């Protein structure tokens, strides 16, 4: 079956997407009919240049003073993390010997209950929390459940992974912008203004007229208005791990640049999607420390295990653990600049980095979520994801659950 799956990856590229890492770049916005025929219906991404140059935001938002003045009375959702990697896989570090033993027991048991109802799981009362500083954060290690041992005598084991969500606070916009601009690794936190609940229309009403509330040619092609419009303000330290969304996404960069890695839905097995226990960061202004606590009752999040940019010391190990990603076709790569829009089709896996504007120090973007059609393409993906594809030299299936679960809720970047 693995050979047939790999043939699918290649055929999709040869027949539709192209065999180079680049995606189509249109010089100007397409007609609704052209967009529908050549991109939406084919589930094919593209970049549209000169798409938002008529927005007042393209000039006004390059000035932090304008934003602070106009939004002086607004409070916005601010996401804080130790390293800019919210809604991503994070190792559990800094445990005492006793807590490490408890953690080993916990992760050994969840390996056998990951697909049960968390409320019914016998782990529902298990909660592990610990405090650490930024410098204790390390690159993720692959979850390796360890059999339970007597408390205090458990053998050392690689730190297991959890799915960590950011600390979110409602903050006056001038304060939020100051924290974003001062974010760096020495500051013990990275601040990112965003909230995926239609935050642009709910939290930034004073600047709504600076850009359009929908993309007219996209709305006509899709036959609807966007369900949500979100605003993103951050710096180069904010990064988004691989994930997918059940939305048609029109992603407009207003200031700075966004750098995307893209993989089509047919490449789902290359993402090594697994269930990870959910955890939440809490940040203390007094101590400058983050606390990460597993949710209680236990909740599992299906998430992509692949880090496309492993650290030098982890590169060989990660390439060995995730050969379908690193040895398969190269992901599509694109940079979306100010004034451009990326059409990101539903179900496409994407990883995002960003570069701030050299003058303002900010990367600002607005994205438009349109409902996807749950049609035959969705059924095909659901079927494909249900197929067990085996790792080389490993009898365990990469995917143990055929259900298509929306892993977009709560993701840091869309």
Brief sketch in words of this structure:
This protein has 414 residues and is an alpha+beta fold. It contains eleven helices and 19 strands.
- Portion of residues in beta strands equals 25-35%
- The share of residues in helices is 10-25%
Largest sheet: 6 strands, mixed
Give a count of the beta strands, DSSP E runs of length 2 or more.
Answer: 19
- Name the structural class: alpha+beta
Give the ordered list of helices and strands. Answer: HEHEHHEEHEEEHEHHEEEEEEEHHEEEEH
Distance between the termini: 32 Å
Query: Cα-atom Rg, whole angstroms?
Result: 22 Å
Features:
single chain, disordered C terminus, alpha+beta, 414 residues, globular, six-stranded mixed beta sheet, 11 helices, 27% strand
